[in-house]
Amino acid sequence: MTTERFDVRHIDLATADTGTHGGPALSVFWWKDLPLGTRASLQDELPYGIPQLRQLAAEYAAAQLEARSIGLGAPLRATYEGWPKPALSLEGSLEAENLIESLEEFATTSSASAHDMSVVICTRDRGPALADCLHSVAAQRSAPGEVIVVDNSRDGNAKGVCGQFSSVRYIHEPQAGLSRARNAGIRASRLNMIAFTDDDVEVHPGWTAEIARAFADRDVEAITGLVLPARLETAAQRCFQFTMGGFGTTFVPLIFDRRFFEETKPSGAHVWKIGAGANMAFQRSVFERVGMFDERLGAGAAGCSEDSELWYRLLATGGACLYEPRAVVFHHHRSDWPGLKRQIRAYMKGHVAALVAQYDNFGDRGNIVRIGKQLPVYFLKTFVKALFEGPPGRLGILASEVQGWLAGLPFLLRFGWRKQRIATHVAAVDAKGIAK
Amino acid sequence: MNYKLADIELTEPLAPIELSAGQNGLGLIARWQGRLIGFEMVELSDGSVMTIERLKTLADERFAGRILVAKLQEELRQRQPMGEAAALPSLSIAICTKDRAQRLSRLLGSLDRVRAESAFQFVEILVVDNASVDTATRDAVAGFRDVRYVFETKAGLDFARNAALHAARGDIIAYLDDDVVVDRNWLTGLAKACLENPNVGGFTGLVLPYRLDTEAQILFERRGGFGRGFARREFHNARFDNPLHPVGSGVLGAGCNMAFDRALLIKLGGFDEALDTGAPLPGGGDLDIFYRVLRSGRPMIYEPEYAVYHEHRETIPQLRRQYWTWGLGMMAFLVKSYRTDDEMRARHRAMVRWWFFDQLKALARAASRFRGHELRFGIAELWGGIYGLAGEYDRSRARIQAIRERNP
């Protein structure tokens, strides 16, 4: 972890422009509108030379073709760690021709209409950030059918910001809790696709079009997308992105289905690998089938993981979720250490709460194994590694993780809390009533 | 243990590979249109056959993706030809050898085959005879056309390497150890790397096993050997993903196959003669020179098409000794760098810490899995490291001073 500030630089490999020079950077590589990968480099390693760009382009493009080209074994299913399980054959790769042409095809911008899509943004006391987010939503190539802002602040302070955008529907949900706010958004929405993003996010101009295309092309009930860092100016932001892996760094589309669920079940199905709440979308039917967000979870309640707990229910009941990195959003990571630590603590606490909820819902012992064995082992290994190898600051973050885990353990004993799980299904019935 | 080594071309139909009696495994070198794209080791039962089905499964998993990458590289090259350097530099190939006439002949033979179709305008081959005890080395060289012979009286690999540096005339100097044989694309690969990357400090290349006839050779290759993969890599003065870089310069490659900008090496003062002295300190010289080239601000390139086959140590005791010298050479290099490169001291200290932590981790792993050989190799390397840290560089300095005085 260096102390220098990093730029986030976007390089289009189709034109092989080496990008602007400058200090250290996280380079995000694209082929036109298709995101290919990221690579962090110090000033000494920059600028990238043409042979290096060509090699990166070849490696990234090969990964895209394997994941998107039917002739080469696509679509790929997620395997154990949420990695792609390649299905390429020698024959397929020997016969493949005009590869750049195929790549160009996958990189064409989506022109799918988003008129049947509600975009739901939940916000709490973040006026300026919300304004940026709404600007990015207003600039979509395919305008969504409706944009709903659910204001989760006590005094409804986002109303002013929303007033600046003519097409935004404003809903005030004074009872704190991200899940509650998300559910209010679902109830208020009138369309068949519901896409969620957060108030600390700016979405790519093609975001809604890509989600609409993915729903049209693939038979899935849920979609997640790529979350890239908007900025890496502070040490806290770099720590979150580089040390903690940000919101995932996979650039190929993956199917998370029953098989992924079964493979990872022994250690509490690894549903958090599916994506992030800052970039997810559902068919309305999902909420009718498995219920809405669990209001005991999520920011403002247990901490987080309200998104992954819903995916858990989706997969456990035979559904599938598609991760489609063409749907891109840019997330503003927490810029201060205390904020980052609070966030990490909330993540871990929420994670434990979600594991308890998942165990209660479906009875998979893997959830308990993860709380009692897997996580402590991970803490121990991380501790030893951080002690000897760093990076500096990792130990502090680990402390927050352990605190979060400890704060999450009491959920196991809160029997009253654990009995409330029926609420999700009641919510589902509500949603049905509205939908009709 | 004895593995058959097979070299297959994937554009041709797969054929079963039969092992003879006594062979219980396969080292598979895979090419696509002649280009090296993968190497895999497969354990099989004694004298059995690697069937087409098994080959196909292996190729699907390990080689198919690399073919795709190679094809894309070709397409991208055609799409946007880059402003490559107009002309190739001149090249000197330097082989330092001592009392190994037979291996030297083998290497010179393999060089003869690639030399004919070289893109280089000027190629010279230089054999530095490092104080061999008899004339066998001189006689071996006499059997080949256009090979220059230089005798270096001061025994020690880096004495010989420096002698080559000053006797050579090429812009680029490519060093080969006498226990390697070059791949048929070795020179083409080096030419490609030179054209693509003008102004770099040097090149390292792929090192594959020459044979896998003994347990020691197989074990060495299984533990990583000298292999650094089949993708081009760039090395600079610093690396985002490794805060200790360039101190751990072993990732660049190995001294048995490396090339440099000759003028740069002369400017840097050549190789450190206190390293790579043969017994008792037969290592560290390559680490040191890679490190100094990177520290001078010039990048180095790892080019997989610039490939050689290395004959690994034959017996387990020899191999154990090699690991011992790895630890020894690593620490001698670190002690020396710590003294001469103040700016990087924190990294050298961290490297020593990390190295011991890493070795102990490997030992614990080997012990917990009851792997006797692994454990003994690990102990040898660790002990070499401790011994190296305890003043080996100074002992070596004293030894070479004596050698210099004996051979003024």
TrEMBL record, chain A:
| Gene3D superfamilies reported for this sequence | Spore Coat Polysaccharide Biosynthesis Protein SpsA, Chain A
State a single Gene Ontology molecular function: glycosyltransferase activity
Organism encoding this protein: Rhizobium jaguaris
Q: Where is the Glycosyltransferase 2-like domain?
A: 118-290
Q: What keywords would UniProt list here?
A: Glycosyltransferase, Transferase
Pfam families found in the cross-reference section: Glycos_transf_2
Name of the protein in question: Glycosyltransferase
Superkingdom? Bacteria
Fetch the InterPro entries from UniProt: Glyco_trans_2-like, Nucleotide-diphossugar_trans
* Family under the similarity heading: Belongs to the glycosyltransferase 2 family.
Automatic annotation (TrEMBL), chain B:
Q: Which residues form the Glycosyltransferase 2-like domain?
A: 92-202
Q: Is the Magnesium keyword given for this protein? A: no
**Which UniProt key words apply to this protein?**
Transferase
Q: Name one Pfam family in it.
A: Glycos_transf_2
Q: Which GO terms describe its molecular function?
A: transferase activity
Q: Which InterPro entries match?
A: Glyco_trans_2-like, Glycosyltransf_2, Nucleotide-diphossugar_trans
Keyword Protease annotated: no
Q: What is this protein called?
A: Glycosyltransferase
